């Protein structure tokens, strides 16, 4: 994850390639219940920051280079798309036309798969990317961007050229958990 960008625009067609790749993620019932709001350039990305971070919070912000990301993508999940899809004749017998019947919210899982492809594609394009949560101003942001009530962001993705000033997260000091602690072959 990269938290410091130089502000240069993305190259021609890069964002379209990334989004095309993201839409190829697997999805339950091939529902593809995701959508992406794409904000490109300082005028559009400022709309995001205006709602999610007060101007006085920007002074002294730990990652000022994040505010220079030339693109922000909001991956949105749509639970209703899955409920409608699983009410269709070929899926109706599954009993998943009711949200409470789902073992996990696949709409969020599938949207996360698509987001991971966006992140991995950014690396392949030589870009930096950061997935982060929207901790305040979400309702105002979604209203400003005219996002339908059926869609909910799972977070945001900042994309751009790293400026080299990124400081590694202190959390990395924890180290990766050893494989033997997380991989359990044949059972726990």
Would you give an account of this structure?
With 188 residues, this protein is an alpha+beta fold. The chain has one domain: NADH Oxidase. Strands 1, 2, 3, 4 and 5 form a five-stranded antiparallel β-sheet that branches. The radius of gyration is 19 Å and the shape is globular. It starts with 13 loop residues before the first helix and ends in a 6-residue tail after the last helix.
Average pLDDT confidence is 96
CATH topology: NADH Oxidase
Gross CATH architecture: 3-Layer(aba) Sandwich
Number of domains: 1
Give the biggest beta sheet. 5 strands, antiparallel
The CATH homologous superfamily: NADH Oxidase
Question: CATH class, anyone?
Answer: Alpha Beta
Helix content: 25-40%
Supply the number of helical segments: 7
Question: Gyration radius, to the nearest Å?
Answer: 19 Å
Head-to-tail CA distance between termini: 31 Å
Write the H/E string, N to C: HEHHEHHEHEEH
Secondary structure tally: strands: 5
């Amino acid at each position: 994850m990269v938290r410091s960008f130089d502000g240069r625009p993305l190259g021609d067609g890069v964002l379209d390639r990334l989004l095309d790749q993201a839409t190829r993620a697997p999805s339950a019932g091939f529902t593809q219940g995701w959508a992406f709001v794409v904000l490109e350039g300082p005028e559009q990305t400022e709309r995001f920051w205006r709602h999610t971070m007060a101007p006085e919070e920007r002074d002294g912000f730990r990652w000022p280079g994040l505010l220079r990301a030339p693109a922000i993508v909001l991956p949105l999940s749509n639970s209703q798309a899955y409920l409608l899809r699983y009410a269709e004749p070929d899926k109706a017998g599954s009993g998943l036309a009711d949200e409470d019947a789902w073992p996990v919210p696949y709409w969020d899982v599938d949207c996360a798969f698509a987001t991971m492809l966006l992140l991995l594609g950014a690396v392949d394009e030589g870009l930096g990317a950061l997935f982060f949560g929207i901790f305040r101003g979400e309702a105002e942001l979604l209203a400003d961007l005219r996002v339908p009530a059926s869609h909910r962001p799972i977070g945001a993705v900042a994309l751009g050229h790293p400026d080299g000033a990124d400081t590694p997260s202190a959390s990395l000091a924890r180290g990766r958990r050893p494989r033997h602690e997380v991989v359990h072959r044949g059972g726990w």
